[in-house]
Specification:
The structure is a homodimer. By secondary structure, chain A is of the alpha/beta class. In chain A, α6 crosses α7. Chain A has a nine-stranded mixed sheet, with helices on both faces. Chain A is 27% helix and 23% strand. The longest helix of chain A has 17 residues. Chain A contains eight helices and eleven strands. At the A-B interface, α5, β5, β6, β7 and β8 of A face α5, β5, β6, β7 and β8 of B. Chain A binds a DNA duplex through α2 and α3.
DNA sequence: GCCGAGAATGAATCCATCC
DNA sequence: AGGATGGATTCATTCTCGG
């Protein structure tokens, strides 16, 4: 089966479609960096099944943000689904490829299970410390988002001359103006790409607004984005053509 | 069975013995805050009979840990053992008590499993960002230690007047002059105690050098420490009597 | 250009209320 | 009764704007 790109230029490709059916058509990936739907937002079914806008957004101005799909799975469903797409990503990747998956504290153990079930070698947990989070009385604030890091096989000997050293924890605030609820600061994505050699081929199977593609472009990598919602595909295309408000300065 | 304290003063009590057999004799705990051995260290005789020098020189957190993809019996053993002491701690605690357990990334999923298996309500994952870790070439540094947070039952209504707001992520380096290698910064322990009402009863079933007892004392709480190694017990007693180099300033 | 004051915001959570 | 909906709450940080 041949895929038809929704958009394509020198370094960016966007496919409009489902991750599970699209990833098996890809190959030669050096890294998979993505922020899948967490299916969090509550411990109970009725809370999870609320629309993402009402689950997650609560601001006075109520800026419009599109709904995103696939956020209603229960624990077992989330594990099974995660294992499926991660297995597909594994087969589409080259040896020693990197996998970097965002998750919140509730799904962290399930995500590490899925990563390993899919054949990846779990290497660690990175922390994105976002200082702008809502306070909770008599509780610890959940002001961290986690990134499960894994590789395809062992990394082997490294040349210390050209070696890269990256922190496992980064503090950064979400961008002021976001199209997607979960839109990441470019800084965070560039951090996660810091281990990659030049001109790597990256894939983000849950592209959203397209931050991963933009960060890859900034760093001189190629990137393939997959997104189910046409609204987000549109946004990403416009953003790639004219990255206004990209947060870069 | 009545326990005989190894040491006791107004706010601190130390029992020299095993956590599993000691905790069932305790009651009325408002919080359990501890850094258990991550591997099976302390569970088996060969670990316990190691020479004093290696116990003191080698950090407990750097102890041998099984390869992840390897034999899973150690993982299962760790889960079973963790569930046992956490269950005992649950029964020794009052309603709405807090549980705060240090763990590293490898044992984080097993720890959250054990916490929930023991009946505690998992509330989140705190991050201690310690900037003093060894860099690895071509890798993300593991510069974070995790703290699994849980409570005994739901927390219910909170009074907003007297409510406490605590961060979920803290950056702190170990004090330059440490009385003991395994010592955590007092700052970190005081952070974890920040949700507790005055004069709470805390328990650290894996006391080590006694940082938890010292932090509790600083904040006006009572604390019970349990420790298998007599050397550690001795050290803690000396430290409580004269807290030189405690990191407090 | 730098600094200080003021405003806006958050993958939240609890709880009352309605259907 | 039980599931779904909507309102109120809160502070650290960032952003904006004016002097």
């Amino acid at each position: 089966m041949t895929l038809t790109p929704y958009y394509k230029d020198g370094c960016s490709t966007i496919y409009h479609g489902e991750a599970l059916t699209t990833i098996p058509n890809l190959e030669g990936l050096d890294a998979v960096i993505t922020d899948p739907p967490y299916s969090s937002g509550g411990m109970f079914k009725n809370e999870r099944s609320r629309p993402t806008v009402s689950k997650y957004v609560q601001s006075r101005t109520k800026a419009y943000r599109p709904e995103f799909a696939g956020d209603t799975r229960d624990q077992r469903g989330f594990l099974a689904w995660s294992t499926l797409w991660m297995t597909a990503a594994y087969h589409a990747s080259v040896e020693k490829a990197h996998l970097l998956v965002f998750t919140d504290w509730r799904q962290l153990p399930t995500t590490t299970d899925a990563v390993q079930a899919a054949g990846w070698l779990w290497q660690g947990v990175n922390v994105w410390h976002k200082s702008t989070s809502r306070p909770r009385p008599n509780a610890f604030r959940s002001d961290a988002e986690f990134v499960v890091w894994a590789t395809k096989g062992r990394m082997g000997k490294q040349d210390n001359k050209t070696a890269t050293y990256s922190p496992g924890t980064l503090k950064a605030s979400p961008p002021r103006e976001r199209a997607h609820i979960t839109q990441k600061p470019t800084e965070v994505l560039e951090w996660l790409m810091s281990l990659l050699p030049e001109d790597s081929l990256i894939c983000d199977p849950f592209m959203g607004s397209g931050s991963t593609l933009l960060a890859a472009k900034n760093l001189g990598h190629r990137c393939i984005g997959v997104e189910l919602s046409e609204e987000f595909c549109d946004h990403a295309v416009g953003w790639l053509k004219e990255p206004r408000g990209s947060g870069a300065h």
